[in-house]
Amino acid sequence: MTVSSYIFAAAPIVSSISPTSLVIGTNTTLTCTTSLNYPAGNVTWSRTERGDPLINDRFTVNGDGTLLVSMAMMEDAGPLTCSVTNQYGRSFLTAQISVQCMLL
């Protein structure tokens, strides 16, 4: 009797970006959640689905793929795309990011 096992690998599917609301003047870490973690993917963040890089020293992509937004500003509002790529393909999701004033 022969037993075969197959491991199916695929491109990760980006399922969510959270949070989608920032507060002016605060630091917030955004997470890009994928439905598949094997094989792991390379996470990038951009303002467009084409992958134009975030050109701003207040945005930092951490080693775990999360995005740190330092000292949020009104101009940070708008579409933000998380893209995950592995050897099997690429998946991305764009979320509309809002920026709120801090309530006192």
Supply the helix-strand structural class. mainly beta
Note the total helix count.
Answer: 0
Largest sheet: 4 strands, antiparallel
Tell me what portion of residues adopts beta-strand conformation: over 45%
* Total count of domains: 1
State the fourth-level CATH superfamily: Immunoglobulins
Number of strands: 8
CATH class: Mainly Beta
Give the SSE string.
EEEEEEEE
Mean pLDDT: 83
CATH architectural designation: Sandwich
Shape: elongated
Radius of gyration: 17 Å
CATH topology: Immunoglobulin-like
> In order across it, which strands form the biggest sheet?
1-3-6-5
Helix content: under 10%
| Termini separation | 71 Å
Low-confidence spans: none
Could you walk me through the main structural features you see in this protein, from its secondary elements to its overall organization?
The protein has 104 residues and is mostly beta strands. The chain has a single domain (14-100), classed as Immunoglobulin-like (Sandwich), CATH 2.60.40.10. The chain is built from no helices and 8 strands. The chain has strands at residues 14-18, 21-23, 28-34, 42-46, 59-61, 67-69, 78-86, 89-100. It has a 4-stranded antiparallel β-sheet with strand order 1-3-6-5, with no helix packed on it. Strands 2-8-7-4 form a 4-stranded mixed β-sheet, with no helix packed on it. Strand 5 (59-61) and strand 6 (67-69) form a beta hairpin. The mean pLDDT is 83.
Labels describing this entry:
45% strand, 104 residues, 4-stranded antiparallel sheet, 8 strands
Set out the fold topology.
Blueprint: E1 14-18, E2 21-23, E3 28-34, E4 42-46, E5 59-61, E6 67-69, E7 78-86, E8 89-100
Parallel strand pairs: 2-8
Antiparallel strand pairs: 1-3, 3-6, 4-7, 5-6, 7-8
